[in-house]
Write a structure and sequence with these properties.
Elements lengths: L25 E3 L1 H7 L5 E4 L9 H14 L4 E6 L2 H13 L3 E6 L4 H4 L8 E5 L8 H18 L1 E3 L4 H8 L3 H10 L5 E5 L4 H12 L5 E7 L4 H6 L26 H10 L3 E5 L1 H15 L5 H16 L8 E5 L11 H4 L10 H10 L1 H12 L1
Parallel strand pairs: 2-10, 3-4, 3-6, 4-5, 7-8, 7-10, 8-9
Antiparallel strand pairs: 1-2
Helix pairs in contact: 2-3, 2-6, 7-8, 8-10, 11-12
């Protein structure tokens, strides 16, 4: 099944462009729940979409609309996830595309673009060290180009592509079916569009979970506004290295603030180091490997549990927005240090490893008693 099963609640198109997006699983996180003292903790794996992120829902809706509107092609900007989604769904739709990619995007987000027949340029000044002036300037240039050439404006923000972003409402629809007991939904917030659409989907299905905006402290305009630190949800400069959340002037910032407040939620910001620690915790304890932007949700939950904002009786849900293979740079050094042995040394290596299992078995037995 795809997002088309919610066609009655989405912008009208005669035919959906699809690669099998949507209906992503929700899994329990019992080990992390135990560590945090929570009765239940769940995660929605948007990593299971065809190109590894929730942006496939936006691309499916956007390219369906582009074809419905008989556009000549599409144009978009991206830090990586949206670009890959638009390239894949654009190809599926038969429409050519032009992509402005953040120049500092991880290679794992730019290399997969190469097989597609999409025009790609890197744009400086809108990733690491991004400023509001440069980001706004890029958006204006892309909007003008779309109008000049009859292209669909595929930027993943309500402010520029409201109908396309409606595809993300389906996350809220699905959560209502999958986790009716959810008390809080922790959502990574870059441009704010994911949070706005998800909250709208929950509200339309009359689900009353509190929506929590999760941002890195080095680039947290939405959270800082909610906390009273800035007069509008905009900051001058971004100091975080978390790809995908480096948006000092989020296009959907005001709408995100309204969505959070309407749900009686809040915003939580955490350091890049806390986010990377959460990424590793998800992988080593639950077997789920996500990119840092997605792990921002767990980092925020840890902080909120520690501060007493979320109590043990709550049932929070983390939106894990993108897969870990999209940002592998920090793991390269470790991968290059794998021990190399001859076949005759394999048995001693296994024996040495197995000696540590006794203590591990005793530890597990103690946990289950």
């Amino acid at each position: 099944m795809t997002i088309s099963r919610f066609a009655a609640d989405l912008p009208r198109v005669d035919q959906f462009v699809t690669l099998g997006e949507g209906d992503t699983p929700v899994v329990e996180l019992p080990a992390i729940a135990g560590r945090l003292g929570l009765r239940r903790l769940s995660a929605k794996l948007e990593t299971q979409n065809p190109t590894g992120s929730y942006k496939d829902r936006v691309a499916a809706m956007s390219l369906s609309l582009a074809r419905q509107q008989r556009k000549r092609g599409w144009i978009a900007s991206s830090s990586g996830n949206a670009g890959l989604a638009m390239a894949a769904y654009g190809t599926r739709s038969g429409l050519p595309g032009f992509l402005c990619l953040v120049a500092t995007a991880p290679l794992e987000k730019s290399i997969p673009l190469q097989p597609y027949a999409v025009a790609v340029i890197g744009v400086d000044g809108v990733g690491d060290g991004a400023t509001s002036r440069e980001l706004t300037g890029l958006m204006d240039e892309i909007r003008d180009a779309a109008e000049r050439h009859g292209l669909y404006l595929g930027i993943t923000a309500h402010a520029m592509n409201h109908d396309g972003m409606r595809g993300v409402d389906t996350i809220g629809y699905e959560l209502t079916e999958q986790v009716p007991t959810a008390s809080h939904v922790f959502v990574p917030a870059g441009g704010g569009g994911l949070l706005v659409a998800l909250a709208r989907g929950l509200r339309q299905r009359e689900h009353d979970a509190h929506v929590v905006a999760c941002q890195p402290s080095g680039c947290a305009p939405v959270v800082r506004f909610l906390d009273g630190g800035v007069p509008i949800p905009v900051i001058a400069h971004c100091d975080s290295l978390v790809s995908g959340l480096q948006v000092p002037s989020p296009p959907d910032g005001p709408m995100a603030v309204e969505a959070v407040e309407r749900s009686q939620g809040w915003g939580t910001m955490t350091s890049d180091d806390e986010i990377l620690a959460a990424q590793r915790l998800l992988a080593t304890v639950e077997g789920i490997f996500v990119e840092p932007a997605a792990a921002t949700t767990l980092a925020a939950l840890v902080r909120d549990v520690e501060s007493g904002r979320v109590d043990r009786h709550a049932h929070p849900v983390l939106i894990l927005s993108g897969a870990g293979w999209k940002d592998l740079g920090r793991f390269g050094a470790a991968a290059g240090k794998l021990p190399i042995v001859t076949f005759s040394d394999v048995a001693p290596q296994v024996d040495m490893w197995a000696t540590g299992l006794d203590s591990s078995d005793r530890h597990l037995a103690g946990r289950h008693q």
